[in-house]
Each structure stands twice: as C-alpha cells, then as structure tokens.
From TrEMBL:
Any one biological process term the GO annotation gives: proteolysis
Organism: Billgrantia pellis
Family: Belongs to the peptidase M18 family.
Keyword Metal-binding part of the UniProt annotation: yes
Keywords: Aminopeptidase, Hydrolase, Metal-binding, Metalloprotease, Protease, Zinc
Cofactor(s) required, per the database record: Zn(2+)
The protein's name in its UniProt record: M18 family aminopeptidase
InterPro entries, sorted: Peptidase_M18, Peptidase_M18_dom2
Known EC number: 3.4.11.-
Enzymatic class: hydrolase
Amino acid sequence: MSREARLERLLDFLHRSPTPWHAVEAMAERFDAAGFRRLDEGEPWQLAPGERVYTTRNDSSIVALQLPRERLHALRMIGAHTDSPGLRLKPNAAQASAGWLQLGIEVYGGALLAPWFDRDLGLAGRVHLRHADGRLEGMLLHVDRPVAIVPSLAIHLDREVNQGRPINPQTQMAPVFLQGGDKADLQRLLLGWLEAQHGIIGAEILDFELAFHDVQPPSLVGVEGELVASARLDNLLSCFIGLEALLESDGSQGALLVANDHEEVGSASTSGAQGPFLGDVLRRINAQLGEPGDEGFIRLIQASRLISCDNAHALHPNFIDKHDAAHGPALNGGPVIKVNANQRYATNSATSALFRDLCREAGVPVQTFVTRADMGCGSTIGPITATELGVPTLDVGVPQWAMHSIRETAGSHDVEHLTRALVAFVNRPRLV
C-alpha cells in the first residue's frame, strides 16, 4: 500500500472530522466498508470466532475488534482519543455587541488560545431535535465554510500586545457571527443548515453540542512534502493510524482499537478512558469467546497488551532548550516511546522492549521522549486505561510541533512508520 495513498486518506479523514462525533462517524464508515458488523450496546450480542465487529458510545467513542479464529486468549489493543482542545459554544451562546451577533464560547481542554485569532471558522457538532411527530433525534452538523472569526485588536490600540498580554476567553474571544443579528438568528441559521444537509423541515432544536473549527484544509507542507499540517492532529492522527493498522492486519490474532472521547478534559465520563466503556465491551466478548468468569477475564487482561498512541513533543528548532538534550524526538525520525518515572505515561521496560522489537521487525526507527526534570509532564489514556483494567501498557506517539494549537504539524513519513509498527503488533503471534 503506497505512502501517498495513505496520506490522501489521512487528509480526507482530518477534513471530515471537525468534532469527535464526526471522527467516529468517519471511522465507522471505514469499518462498515471493510465488512465489520456494528453492535448495539443495548441489544444482545451473538459473536462468532473470526468476526470483525465494532460498537460506539455517545457517538464519540468507538471500540472495534478483530476476533480470533480460535478461542480468545489475548488481545493486541491499540488506544487513542477522538477529542481535541478548542472552542465550544455555550448553551445560550447568542449575544449582541456593537451591532454584531457574537457567540459565547467555553474553552475545551488546554487550548493554545492565540492561534485562534483571525482564523476562518466553521461550526460543527451534533444537534438534538424534536420532529413534528414528537420523535427525538440527534443529527450531526458540519458547516464547512467561514461563518465566524475572532478578530485581533489592532496593535495601535494595544502597543504592549507583543510583550505577552494575557488572553481572557470570556471577554475577548467571542467570535463575531452576523452583523445586525439577534439571538433568534442562531436558531434560524442552525435549522437552515440542518435542512440543507439532512432535509430536516419543521423540527425544533432542543439542545446542541457545537464547536468552532478552522476551515483551512489539512495539507502537506515542505519542499518535499515532509510535513502534515492540520487541526486536531492530537489525536486524530493516532485514531487514523490505529484504524489503518487494524484494517491492514492479516486477521490471524485477536486485536482491538479503542478511541475514547474526553481525554483532553481528564477522561472521566461514560465514554472516556476512565469510564466503563472498554471494560464493558471486553467482558461481553470474553463471556462468549474466552474463559468465562472473573478469573477468565483477569487472565485475558494479563495476557493482552495495550499500545496507547498519543502524539509526542518533537524537538522544536526554535526552542531546543525546552527538551532534555538526550530525549528530543525528530519529525520523521520514527515513533516515540514516552517515558515518565511518575507514571504520567504507562510505559515500563517490559512494554518498551516489546515495542522496540516490533519496530525492529517492521524496519522502522524508534525514538524516546522524557520531559525535562524541571518541567511538568502531560498524560494520556494509557495510565488511565492501565489503572482501570490492569492491562500491561505502553505509551507511544508520532512526534509533532504546536500541540494544542488550532493548527499542528507532524512528519509525513512518521504516519507510515507507526502504521507499520502497529501492523506488526496486531499480527504478532506471541506478546511475551
């Protein structure tokens, strides 16, 4: 499979996934096309060895499984998350100022705020409706054109702005939306867009979860296309790579991809890594295809391995001093093993050794990241999932710049590097 074709699929996936709900929908479509069967959590499951199945929760998290052809003894698990930091609308978002309808926002996760100014912003998310017949329904909305902007204040009116002025998201970041508009216009426009996209007529909007997104499309950057630049690379890049690896696997082993929502805000939700979603799925699978009971479930978990994939901080050429001198991953230098002695990452020497051997087998380079001892460290779904399930876990990621910005940058060759390593993982007959 060519690198160029994979990158084309990546750019299309990123463009189609402005929110976690859209990302899960796009992933589900790929699984459907590959012959996976969708399971409803609220219905009985009848599973057969060798099947490929998936299920979703909250429409923003997904678990896909390749069931083994023989009895279930171990699973090769890949983990990622579907959410990214950004600006989300408040429930009563419409507000008027200086002749403009603006939309009040809430910052989701640890977003870099400055890059959101002066960008062409679209609107996306999900809307819940009551139809004329009383039926309730949730619909996805994707306004993929510039409908809003957060304008900067001219430097003439704030001469000290380049000296590090703090940004107040409550008072300074409400996007301008419609000149001369009032609060009723937001409802009118949302209904019009739903009619255009879904043919919905005569419905009433009951509630919504909507977010702004940059409408600049993803692209390959650099003289030789060495870079991928896009919104939400953290962590849709890992979702895409995990999806590609599962679809490319030979189907001989039990394998799983989980992509959780809400990682950027702590993972404590029904569909987050700290919630019961993955555990619920695994218990149902084990009850039918594995050794039933608590002991059987524990044996399954201890025989399995999880590779938690979440992007890593690449060495920035303008800020070299922000890295430990011996642990500065390079873009296009291969996947990064993420290590933290305080368990902000779940890597240990045993799981790290497994991944290094996988990279050797796949013929890809491998790097290591440890944060400076005088700086704090982020975290991932890895330690959370390991804590909830007890599964031996490794944290890895593609190196990137500008994490949590409105537009992030990664190496285009690293997409292939990590995919090949994860295919080797999913196909590996023995995990120990």
